[in-house]
Each structure stands twice: as C-alpha cells, then as structure tokens.
Amino acid sequence: MFDITRQVTSVQRVVSQHSVVGGAQVSVLLRRNYAAPIEELWRALTEPDRLRRWFLPITGELREGGRYQFEGNAGGQILRCAAPRLVKITFGDSVLELRLAETDDGTGLEMMHSVPMEPISSGAGALFVGPGWDVDLLGLDRYLRGEHVPGWENSAAVQEFSRQVIKAWAAATADSGTADGDQIADGVAAASARFTPDLDQTTA
C-alpha cells in the first residue's frame, strides 16, 4: 500500500512548551518534503475542492480575517494568509500555522500546532495531537501522488504507521524534557487506543 518506514522517517517531529497570556501551550512541529511545486502544494492546502479530497470539507469565508469550519471538526478564524508561503489559523481553542518553502526536490512544509497545556498538564499532550497530523500529512502525500483511495485511513497499514509514529512522538516528547516517563506512558496508551484500536497493544 505504501512504504511505512519511509513515510515515518520522512517527517521531523519536535515538541516544545511555552508560556502565553492566560497559561501555557504545548506545540508540535512537523516538517516534511513533498515532491510537488510550491503552488501545487499551496492549492492542496487552501482550495476547498482539493482539501476535501485528502482532509475534510470546509466552508466559510476563506480569506485573511474570515471564519471557516471543517465538517465534523474544528473551526476558527484565518489570522494570516500570504500565498503561497504562509497560512495561520485558530483551530478550535488552538493555533495552527503552515509554512511552505521551495526545496531542491519539491516543497518543504512546516506545520506547527499549539494547544493549551490543560488538561494534559505536560508535553505528553503532543501524543494526542501529533499522530493524527502524521496521518493527515501522509494522506496529503498520497493525494499529491495520485494514490489517495477513500477509506484508506482505516486500513491495517495506517494503524501500523500510527503505531510507529506514536513511538516517534514519545521519543520527541522525551527529548523535549516537557513530560516525565509516567506522563509519556499514559500519553502513549491513550494515543494507541485512539489511533491503533485494532492492533495488539501489548506489542505497541
């Protein structure tokens, strides 16, 4: 179906924690390259007809300052939009920022999602956020390659992919120093139940 190891290792993952007005946030950062021109990747990320093919249907006033809603998911406001390099939005009670840049073999995408520290109270909150974005960015890659098949997200291969990225996010969280071992273990258990429900968790 796809090369799981190659897809897992194609993403750089970083977890950080920082203070904001009213509390603290945990941020997950994902970086990966796509074999597509920057304009093509930008359209896939911002045009409704393309977004629904690999992510979700979207409605709203899709311009800087406008409000949007993803079907069955978060909505918010478009804070910044500078085609074809930057889009920053509120995503429910969090903030999502996408940055694009040309590379020698396509376009680099940097995604940062910053979520409130509560109720997780540690950087282990990354395990509730990061693995889902990994699957979405995998879907974007498959869409750009013309390989996207409806319903593929529920396959055994995607769950195995998710199991491996959960381990990667656990390692990134440990490297960040934002959570202790017990908090990370709890995050891994919760992420495994959510993203790999059909796999034997004793081998996760």
From TrEMBL:
Transmembrane intervals: none
Coiled-coil intervals: none
Superkingdom: Bacteria
Domain Activator of Hsp90 ATPase homologue 1/2-like C-terminal: residue ranges: 35-144
Family note: Belongs to the AHA1 family.
Listed name of the protein: SRPBCC family protein
Organism: Saccharopolyspora elongata
